[in-house]
Structures are given as C-alpha cells and as structure tokens.
Amino acid sequence: MPSLPTKSFQTVVASIVTGIQGRATVLLNFSQGSALRAIAEGFAAVFMWFESLVLQLLLAIRLSTSTGNDVDTFVADFMPVVPGTNTPRLTAQPATGVAQFARLTAGPSSPVVLVGSTVQTADGLRTFTVYADLTAPTYNPLLNGYVMAAGLASVNVPVIDTQPGTGGNINSGQLTVMTTPLTGIDTVTNINQFINGIDIESDAALKKRFSDWIMGLSRGDLYGTTAAIEGSELKIQWAIKENYNLDGSWRQGFYLIVVDDGSGVPPQSFLDAAMSAADAVRPLGIELAVFPPTLLQATVAMTLTIDPTYDRNTVISQVAAIVSQNIDGLGLGNDLTYTMLCGWPYTVPGVIAASNVTINGKIGDFASITTKQPTQDGQTTFVYATVKCASAVVS
User: Which of 134, 215, 231, 287 minimizes the number of CB atoms within 10 Å of its CB?
Assistant: First the structure.
C-alpha cells in the first residue's frame, strides 16, 4: 500500500486554528468549549473520516492488503466460484475418521452397523454419522451397512462430522455415545484422533491459491496441476511423481498423484474430486492416476523416568497424547524418525528421561518409518504413504 502523509486529529485541529488565526486581525478564542474550537474540531472529524475512507480504499484495491470480503470480491473477478456461492473461497470441511463398534461378547450372530447411524462425543457437543464406503470389505450394499462377522468382537466403520470445521478434530477415545440403537452392538469409540476437520479457507490460503491459479492458467504443467489440486478440497495433502507407476516401475508419459485428507484413509468422493481437478489440466496424450496414501501404522512404546513431585499418571497420559497427536499430525510424505520420537516426551513438564523407546518393536534408526519408496531402477524416490499412530504405550 502507498505510504500517505496522514495526520492525527490534534494535528488537523491545530492546522485549522493556525490557518484561521493567521488570517484574522484580532486574537480569536480557540480554547476548549469555545464556538470556534467546536467548529475546528467538527471540520477535523470530517477530515479524519475522509482520511479513513482513503486508507480503506487503498487496502481494498490491492489483493495483498485486502481482507475478508474484499479478498472474495477481488479473486471472484478471475477465478471460478464455489458452486452455490459467489466466491472462490473454499468452505469448511468436516472431520472424518474411523469409529470402532464393538460387542461385549463375540457370538455367532452378525450385527450390522447401518449407514446413517449416529454417534456422539462424551460431552454431546459433536455428532458423527456413519457413511458408505463401497471399498470397505465389511460394507454390504444390500444391507446398506457394515457387517460384524460371526465370532468377531468389533468392526471399524467410517464416520463423518455433521458440522464442518475444526471442532470435529477430537482426541482418541472421545467418541463414546451411540445415539442410534443398533442390535447386537454395545459400545463405540474412536481408536485414533480425528485431525482433518478444517475451518473455512483463510485469506492467506486463498491469496496463495489465486497466485497458483494465475500461474497455472492454460498450462498442463506443475503450476496448473498445483492450482487444480489445491482448488479441489480445502485441506488436501498431495504429492506427484512423473514417469513411474505406484509400484516404482518405469512408465513414460504417465504421472501419478497421491492425495490425503489428513485421515490416512480418504473417502472415494475425496479421491474423485482430486482426480477430476487434475484431469481438467492433464495434457492430451498423457495418462494420469490418483491414489490414496499407503497407511503405515506406528506402535510406540517407551518407559519414563518422572520427577517425583509430579503426578505420574498425569505425566504418562500427557506424553501418550502428545506422541499420538504428533504422529497423526505428520501428514503425507513426512517420515517418523526415531530421534524425533525420542525428543517428544521431554516437551512434557516432569519428564526426566525416556528410555526403552521402540517403534513397532524396533529401536534406533532401523525403527524409523519412511513415507517414501525408491523406484525400481533406483534413480529416485517418491512419496507414497502417511504414518498414523496405532497405539502409544507409555509406562
């Protein structure tokens, strides 16, 4: 924004007083409460109003300094708007995750968790709904639900928050109340935390996406693909690889995109949206495929030495929560290294030492989990996976 020679209210009043007195042949009364002082301050107030209007206008006419609705109206003159709105700003996204429905005794019956069933958090503030995942092995389209096979005590079912936004990002174990009666089902919980709920697109994110969109206009290259993918979903993690299949074999004239919504198991609708966006800028004669990430589970264990002045159970639960949250928050393409994991416990007050740290039963650098794999020719690597916490056993 241009730098303007703005003036304060007192400076404007002083300038008015000086101008009037300089043209008068007698000394005038500009003391507080006088009529001339009131007139000068009235003019100054109008001047300040005009000055504020100019400043607001200068902020609004440049995207870099615009905020809120001014950003929407600026970019809407160029970018396609979100259907049903008058702005390209992406709307809030509900959290999704996996709920585990269980029965107290595994029996010969096969209870069904119906699509549309609802569950709530213990405080009743968030409600989640079971949705259909046609690719899930336990989903039965005829029953429109997920079948808990005979002899099994639980079944994992995908659920989605009924309200969009970050309020649906809940910790593990918070989803405990079944609000829809289900025959043969006794309990419900979420083993992992939900982390992919997100609020409406921020000004900064929309400005960046506008820049990417401008750079990618009419281009079937990385700029065009970046703009297309970023515009498909509000919270999308993605990685691209050219000329290789997902198994690492060479395939000229082909590129793949691995996408995730933060959960590690994005629904098919999410994958379809990413595919449609990328396909819109795909050059003719070039093949493209979109894949979900490979989900790598991390089972973590460690032993803590705790300051005796701290409550041991509290410290243990805090460390377990931080380890679980940090692993689940790594995101697509970010490795879980052993040294990284060893440092997290020390962020909790009361921890003196962390020992016997293992990842999937291993120690040292060999325990680290990488989200990248080499191509079959050994020439390069590419992102294919995301890491999530299966369990964090802290003692």
Answer: 134
